[in-house]
Design goal:
Distance between the termini: 55 Å
Shape: elongated
Number of strands: 35
Strand content: 25-35%
Strand order of the largest sheet: 17-16-18-19-25-24-23-21
Radius of gyration: 44 Å
Length: about 775
């Protein structure tokens, strides 16, 4: 019954001895066979010689039979059809016209497959036919669906064409195909590879590379030849298409504010006469820089360099754009967007001081020693009222005070402006004429600190100026409280990152209690919406304790008011515990980070895995939200919107609930190529905890849509190098060169020994015995 499982057999050697041992034994047996001829060389009777030789030969054969241990191998054989792979390009370049004004290459590929259905059916009878679609990745296609709905399965959406990668994956096989021989492959494409071959295709097309294949494709062809695998190719598309495209933009992922940035745009023109066209670099929809690109007859490549200096930090979307030319084959490749994050190299601080003091000395020293701060400072030695004999304005400061340059022309270059006990009313400097510039600077995203003293909130009378609209406090008219006092932390101050002088609110409160007394406070009133961090322990102002340190926001900027000029005394706090000036330094470091909107101190943070994606690919947005006490905003509701730059329309929106750890993840899909902003708002009930935004770009597939030129010469060279056939825009698939339609596979086998019979040993013994008997009888040893 078991024999029926096997359908073939053969002889096999079952000997357990290694090959070298069997070889030595064979040599010894042959030598033993020849030896009798030498012994009987003088024997005149030929019959005796042949009799001894025959007996020795029978013994040798029997011994060799016993050593080799021959047997019958029963086998279960299966005939397996080999593979034939058909690969169809589904990248976005297949959306180009197959001929000027004609149908797309993808449609042409679908019609070609429909007309070639009998050819595919015939292949499927003799081979395992594999159908693959490829662009950046490889995916299997269903043959029935492909012939019924080719426009669906062959939709040209892929962001790149990877010929080499797709062929290598098919050659290697996977899943059920692993180990099965590939008898041949057919590649249907326009040949516009832009992954592994991108750098070498230009030289091939221009003739500089001769007939040589690009090195990655040459390596693939060599492997195919070694495996006796013919790769046939079928190219779709004709030249002569008219198109102007932005091929790529060379730019860093980030830049430093107020530092020059260089961006290079690479443009490609084809099918056009001599052309000169403007090239625009836009930021968030507004023209930033303009350049010019020139192309010779027939087109080619051109590079345009843009040099600009970002004036503020943040995440921005830049777009390189060229005007649409008449008769272009594709319109979506005339603009390419990219995201650029502008960060600070150093915090640029302007410190203007009304008169020398201990407070000025400590703060200026702190800022000068901080390697992250670029300090520009001016302080007045004396005012005109202090010395009526002063003849020139420049004698009132260490250097001539460039009021117009600082407060009008250059103020936007500073991250933070500190006015320390400074009066705008001194006519020698006429700073009052530029207070509107300071106000606009704050509202446009700048930061301002007003430090107390008799010339600031008191005699300065800023409440009469336009600057009052951005300050977080307003005067009460009450006189300065001169009695020494210990600053007291407010409820908001226990949680706020500016006043957090230790890892926990409790530890911060203990530090504040140990700080030395301050001398004098100006009686101010905190505006509605501002945050009081420190206050006077008993002096009242406006129905509440007099505020000491107050934070506020105005427009896109932030402000801070300090109602005393004795904060420098904090530098001596907790000296017995070795703290020294650490608490004073930490307060100012926290304040500066908050004022310039350090991302680590914002209650709502937004991050993205990628800031630039292809159209249709999702933007993964990761949110982090904290409450006013900077604990996780668990349960808060987040709204994340994708806003089109330019018209400000919301093109996608998602809602999410902040989890227990203060995070949430949403995905937004840009509907088309272009520049976008991701805007996130987090609310706890009716309270807005904060909002954040980031830049995002949906690219127009870059290289994939930048070059409309098909490359039949590349596909023809690949087919020739591997022994395949090549067709250019055919009506149907021709006869493919294929090898080995079938492979025989052995599933199982069984060995039946033939040597282990008594008569083989008896034959050997009989032959040896008979030879010995005859030699003795005839008188031979």
């Amino acid at each position: 019954m078991e024999q029926a499982l096997y359908n073939d057999w053969s002889f096999a050697a079952l000997s357990p001895y290694p090959a070298w041992a069997l070889a030595l034994a064979t040599v010894a047996i042959v030598a033993g066979l020849i030896l009798p001829l030498a012994l009987f060389r003088g024997e005149p009777r030929r019959g005796r010689r042949w009799a001894v030789f025959a007996l020795r030969a029978v013994a040798a054969v029997a011994l060799l039979f016993l050593l080799l241990e021959p047997g019958q191998r029963l086998m279960q054989k299966t005939r397996v059809r080999n593979r034939v792979a058909l690969l169809v390009d589904t990248s976005a370049s297949m959306g180009f016209p197959a001929s000027p004004g004609g149908e797309s290459r993808a449609v042409a590929a679908g019609e070609l497959l429909r007309r070639s259905a009998p050819v595919l059916e015939e292949l499927a009878q003799s081979f395992t036919l594999e159908l693959w679609g490829f662009d950046r990745e490889l995916r299997s296609l269903d043959r029935v669906k492909l012939l019924e709905r080719p426009e669906e399965l062959l939709a040209p959406k892929g962001g790149a064409t990877d010929l080499v990668g797709a062929l290598r994956q098919v050659l290697a096989g996977s899943g059920a195909a692993a180990g099965r021989r590939l008898s041949g492959a057919l590649l249907i494409s326009d040949g516009a590879d832009n992954v592994e071959l991108a750098k070498e295709l230009a030289s091939l097309a221009s003739g500089e590379g001769g007939r040589a294949l690009p090195s990655p494709l040459a390596s693939l062809a060599a492997d195919a030849r070694a495996a006796r695998l013919p790769i046939s190719t079928l190219s779709l598309g004709a030249g002569g298409l008219r198109d102007l495209a932005i091929e790529r933009v060379l730019a860093d992922d980030f830049a430093f504010v107020r530092s020059p940035v260089k961006v290079t745009a690479v443009l490609r023109a084809s099918g056009m006469g001599p052309l000169q066209t403007p090239v625009l670099l836009k930021r968030d929809g507004r023209v930033e820089v303009t350049g010019t690109a020139s192309f010779p007859e027939g087109g080619g490549r051109a590079e345009v360099n843009f040099d600009f200096t970002p004036d503020r930090t943040g995440a921005f979307v830049y777009t390189v754009e060229v005007p649409l030319q008449a008769g272009e084959a594709i319109e979506t490749n005339n603009a390419l967007s990219f995201a650029l994050k502008v960060i600070r190299d150093r915090v640029r601080v302007l410190l203007v001081v009304g008169r020398p003091s201990w407070d000025e000395r400590f703060l200026r020293s702190l800022l000068k020693q901080d390697p992250n701060v670029d300090l520009v400072s001016f302080f007045i030695l004396r005012s005109a009222a202090d010395d009526p004999k002063t003849r020139a304005d420049d004698e009132l400061s260490l250097i001539p005070f460039p009021v117009r340059e600082i407060f009008h022309e250059q103020i936007a270059t500073f991250d933070l402006v500190i006015l320390q006990n400074f009066s705008h009313e001194d006519r020698a400097y006429q700073v009052g004429d530029y207070l509107s510039s300071i106000r606009d600077y704050v509202q446009n995203g700048g930061a301002l600190v007003m430090v107390g003293g008799d010339q600031s909130f008191g005699e300065g009378h800023y409440e009469r100026t336009v600057l009052q609209s951005v300050l977080p406090v307003e005067p009460t008219g009450a006189p300065i409280q001169v009695e020494p006092f210990h600053a007291r932390l407010t409820a908001e101050g226990r949680r706020h990152p500016v006043s957090l002088l230790a890892p926990s609110p409790e530890a911060t409160e203990q530090i504040v209690r140990d700080l030395p007394e301050l001398e004098g406070i100006q009686m101010l009133r905190a505006k509605a919406g501002s945050v009081v961090l420190f206050e006077h322990p008993f002096a009242a102002s406006g129905g509440a304790n007099a505020p000491l340190v107050v934070l506020g926001e105005a427009g896109r900027g932030r402000t801070m008011a300090i109602a005393t000029d004795s904060l420098w005394k904090w530098a001596f706090g907790a000296a017995p515990q070795g703290a020294g000036a650490r608490n004073y330094d930490r307060f100012w470091a926290n304040a500066i980070r908050w004022l310039v909107r350090d991302p680590d101190l914002t209650p709502v943070k937004l991050a993205m895995e990628q800031s630039a994606v292809e159209p249709g690919e999702p933007l993964s947005v990761q949110l982090s939200a904290r409450r006013a006490d900077f604990g996780p905003a668990a349960g808060a509701e987040a709204t994340v919107e994708l806003v089109r730059v330019g018209d400000g329309s919301v093109v996608a929106s998602k809602r999410a609930t902040i989890d227990a750890e203060g995070g949430a993840v949403v995905e937004l899909i840009p509907p088309e190529a272009g520049a976008f902003k991701v805007v996130a708002k987090v609310r706890a009930g009716e309270v807005l905890l904060g909002e954040a935004e980031a830049a995002a770009a949906a690219r127009a597939l870059g290289l994939e849509l930048a070059d409309a030129t098909p490359r039949p010469e590349l596909l023809a060279a690949l087919a020739k190098a591997t022994g395949g056939a090549h067709w250019n825009n055919p009506e149907r698939i021709g006869v493919l060169p294929l090898v080995d339609p079938e492979t025989v596979e052995v599933g199982r086998h069984k060995d039946i020994p033939l040597w282990d019979r008594w008569y083989w040993l008896g034959l050997f013994a009989a032959a040896i015995g008979a030879e010995w008997f005859l030699r003795r009888r005839w008188g031979y040893p």
